[in-house]
Amino acid sequence: MEALRSDVNNLLKDDVCFPQQQVVCKEETIDFHVARQSVFASLHTQSSTSRESIRRWGVLREFSQQLCDMNTFTLATPGSFAQSPYRDHLNNIVCNRKEGPNCHWARSARYRTADGTCNNLVNSRWGAANTVQRRMSPPQYQDDHSMPRGHDRDPPLPPPREISERLFASDETETADDDSNSLFLWSFGQFLDHDLTFTPTMDEEGKIPPCCEDSHKNHIETGCFPMLRTVDGTEECMQFVRSAPAEEPSRPEACGKDYREQINELTSYIDLGNVYGNSYLVSKAMEAGVYGLMRTSNEGRSLPRGNPNHCDNGRDGVSYCQLAGDKRVNEVPTLGFMHTVFVRFHNAMAKKLKILNPHWTSNTVYLETRRLLGAITQHITYNEWLPRVIGPQYMAQYGLNSLPLGLESYYSYYDTADPSILNEFSTAAFRFGHSQIPPFLVLNDIKYNIDDVLMDSSVLLDNDGRDLQSVASFLMNTPAKRVDRNFEEAIRERLFKTGDKGLDLPALNIQRGRDHGLPPYAKYKSICRQPIGPDMHDHPEDVARTLKEIYGGNIDDIDLFPGGISERSVEGGVVGPLFACIIASQFQLLKYGDRYWYENTRLPSNVRFSYDQIASIKSMTFSRILCEIFAGDSKPMNDVPQNVFLFSSNTTRTSCADSRMNLQPWKDSY
After folding, report:
1. What is the per-residue DSSP string for 507-562?
2. Residue 364 vs residues 178, 470, 601: alpha-carbon distances, Å
3. Which helix (DSSP H) or strand (DSSP E) does residue 498 occupy?
4. Where in this protein does the record put region Disordered (predicted)?
5. pLDDT, position 119
């Protein structure tokens, strides 16, 4: 076995090179690390593997071609997106090194900054809030600079609303359930997305214009890009405001690019910024100011009340608006529920940490609890949720599986890995959950049409917030909707409806991709090394036929979102191979580009988690969080599914009596 390990190390060192960095053989790269981890994992399970078979292993031989063709951080395994045609572009994207804060103080800082700065000590703004989104491929604007893809093109691209009606329309019998996954998979995914991405939209004056008024319809340069089409001789218009451009000189990371880029207002890290806020001021506003607790209402059962203007849905009678670290908390009651879960979990853990360490100040308790919950969320995301989304093959291929207990020293953080959100991820691939949105919610035994409770969280106040267990019960005992081309009519026709007008969510996604200049589906299939073929074999035959008809037979015109969302699911996952590639790419960056990653034991002793603390973190599941927050209810939960993201009548259940987290490793640890 040791001889085999030596052969693997030597083979990889011979193959891994970075000529643009003037390093011929560089072992300490994420590429080398992931490859070695994958090979060693195989050696544990395939004792008969010979040295020669390892030398012939295709993934290893691809390294020399892939890694020598690039000059920046990339992926090491098949499906990597940094190929030689894009290396100059990728260099530009990651050059946001100028004018960031000096981080000399942060090397031994125990806590993250609220805005994500100084996580990377070399490139202090990587992954920080209010920075440019990265790209897997250079944009394809119609004028090469800013005009949306397809704008004023001859022949024109099909209108997004037409694509939506022909591809995404469904009826109740066609919107199939996913009998393997529960609705918690969808709800947690939305919550996680709001921790990672938010792209602001506005016109030049910072206001959202009425884009369907005649005076604004053709003002693309100033922010309006409405969806127009003619139906039976009548023009139809749907509101759409372009994403705000990231412009010089306020954006030093622009790198001198001459094309439009978009901003991510949030930190890219999995740090629960949606709960605590992505700035110091918002973070302080969420604190109760005593005992390290977060602000709540209804004696700790509900989120604090916020500005009612932030959840105006155009209907009368909406009197309750929640306040959270992210302003989208009121979009749907299940999202507000998820926020409430984490705020209540924070307060439960803070109280226990204060009892364990009575000498800690309120601020110390708050920061320690935030640090702990961020780590638990990272573990749940990668250990429970993400495998259900992209499947075991992509988890292993991109080095995303949690390390076994005691082997955390094998984790390596790379300051060359830029975790900034990929435009393709935020604008297309991570919107897969839109296909999972259910037609209704059942809360407290009352059935609500989904479009009737958008921007209305008042149902969470029933019985003064004492009935939240019913939301958890609904999410864990209801199958998710299958990720495919079928979208509920409420999402396609009545999204955020005011009067007789609503929005079309999948059409908005297509328009947003064009607004951002995302290249077409075929370009990303090539980047991920997934041949399409004339028959589009990753799609069901009827879907491939429909897509070809919509786009006039030109596969190269198909937009990224409709092409990716309609692929067959990968084995063990819910998304197709292209979205799996993009999502895995992003989560690899988030894992290996986060200095505060919970498994990183190579930090100073006052910064890293101890091995006992990591063991306690890894014992946590989302089920155990639910047990913890409902323990004080008049009727506490007795048992929960071992994995709430799975849906099965035969799923293993665990007793809540055995679900308390061991916090002893935190006694006097600071």
Report:
1. HHHHHHHHHTTPPPHHHHHHHTT---TTTTTTS-HHHHHHHHHHTTT-GGG--HHH
2. 43, 34, 22
3. strand 495-498
4. 129-163
5. 98
Domain range for 27: 1-83
Tokens 């944009």 belong to residue: 139
Q: How far apart, in whole angstroms, are the C-alpha atoms of residue 243 and residue 202?
A: 7
Asked if the peptide bond before residue 155 counts as cis, ω within 30 degrees of 0, the response is yes
pLDDT at 388: 98
Terminal CA-CA length for the chain = 41
* Burial category of 632 from C-beta neighbours within 10 Å (exposed 0-12, middle 13-18, buried 19 and up): exposed
Q: How many Å apart are CA 542 and CA 536, to the nearest integer?
A: 11
121 is written with which tokens?
A: 């000590």
Q: What is the pTM of this model?
A: 0.85
Q: Which residues of the chain have pLDDT under 70?
A: 1-99, 171-174, 203-207, 215-218, 221-222, 247-256, 310-319, 497-500, 650, 669-670
Which burial class, exposed, middle or buried, applies to 119 when counting CB atoms under 10 A from its CB (0-12, 13-18, 19+)? buried
Q: What is the DSSP letter of 305?
A: B
- Whether 310 has a binding-site annotation, put simply, is no
> Does a structural domain hold residue 472?
no
Q: How far apart are CA 546 and CA 550, in angstroms?
A: 6
Q: Which amino acid is at 157?
A: L
Query: What is the C-alpha to C-alpha distance for residues 582 and 587, in angstroms, rounded to an integer?
Result: 9
CA-to-CA distance for 185 and 190, rounded, in angstroms?
9
| 77 domain residue, yes or no | yes
Spatial distance between the Cα atoms of 627 and 655, rounded to a whole number of angstroms = 9
> CA 222 to CA 216: how far, in whole Å?
9
Burial (0-12, 13-18, 19+ Cβ within 10 Å), 161: buried
Whether residue 491 lies inside any domain: the answer is no
Structure tokens at 446: 């009352």
Q: What is the pLDDT of residues 382-411, one digit of tens each?
A: 999 999 999 999 999 999 999 998 888 899
Q: How many CA atoms lie within 13 A of 35 on its CB side?
A: 32
Q: Are strands 440-443 and 501-503 parallel, antiparallel or unpaired?
A: unpaired
CA 13 from chain centre, in angstroms, equals: 33
C-alpha span between 344 and 629 (Å, rounded): 6
Number of structural domains (the chain) is 1
- The helix, strand and coil proportions of the chain, stated in percent and rounded to the nearest 5, come to 40, 10, 50
Residue 564 falls inside a structural domain: no
Question: DSSP assignment, residue 442?
Answer: E
Peptide bond into 249 cis (omega under 30): yes
DSSP 339: H
Residue 463 buriedness (CB in 10 A; 0-12 / 13-18 / 19+): exposed
Round to whole Å and give the CA distance between 285 and 184: 29
Active site amino acids: 194
135 to each of 198, 248, 418, 582, how far by Cα in Å?
16, 18, 11, 11
Q: Work out the burial of residue 508: count CB atoms within 10 Å of its CB; fewer than 13 is exposed, 13-18 middle, 19 or more buried.
A: buried
Q: For residue 10, what are the contacts with CB-CB under 8 A and spacing of at least 6?
A: none
The structure tokens 């984490």 sit at 342
